[in-house]
Structure formats: structure tokens, C-alpha cells
């Protein structure tokens, strides 16, 4: 049987991992938006 302390510790680790993944997804979305803006501006100027 798993102890409550181990379970709570695992939950905290899981939350950290999820927050980390969300941060990375946000960063990827931000970068892709910037690239699209840059590509669009470059296309308009060309």
C-alpha cells in the first residue's frame, strides 16, 4: 500500500512537470506566432 506522504510527493512532482510542459507549450506558441508575423511582414515588403 502506498503511503499518503509518497502520494502527496508524487502529486507535487506531477504538478511541477505539468507546469513545465505548459510553460514550454506557451513558449512554442509564442515563438510560432512571432515567426508567422515575421514571415507575413517579410512577404508584404517583398
Task: Explain this structure.
The protein has 46 residues and is mainly alpha-helical. The chain has one domain. The protein is built from one helix and no strands. It starts with a helix and ends with a helix. The mean pLDDT is 88.
The helix/strand class is mainly alpha
Largest sheet: none
Shape: rod-shaped
Radius of gyration, taken over Cα atoms and rounded to an integer in Å: 20 Å
The count of helical stretches stands at 1
Order of helices and strands: H
Tell me the span between the first and last alpha carbons: 66 Å
Report mean pLDDT, rounded to a whole number.
88
Number of domains: 1
The level of helicity is over 70%
Low-confidence stretches: none
Number of strands: 0
Strand content: under 5%
Task: Compose a concise summary of this entry.
The chain has 46 residues and is mostly helical. It has one helix spanning 4-45.
How are the elements arranged and paired?
Elements: H1 4-45
Key features of this structure:
single chain, 46 residues, mainly alpha
Amino acid at each position: 500500500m502506498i503511503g499518503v506522504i509518497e502520494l502527496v510527493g508524487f502529486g507535487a512532482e506531477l504538478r511541477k512537470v505539468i507546469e513545465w510542459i505548459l510553460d514550454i507549450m506557451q513558449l512554442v506558441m509564442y515563438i510560432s506566432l512571432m515567426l508567422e508575423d515575421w514571415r507575413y511582414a517579410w512577404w508584404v515588403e517583398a
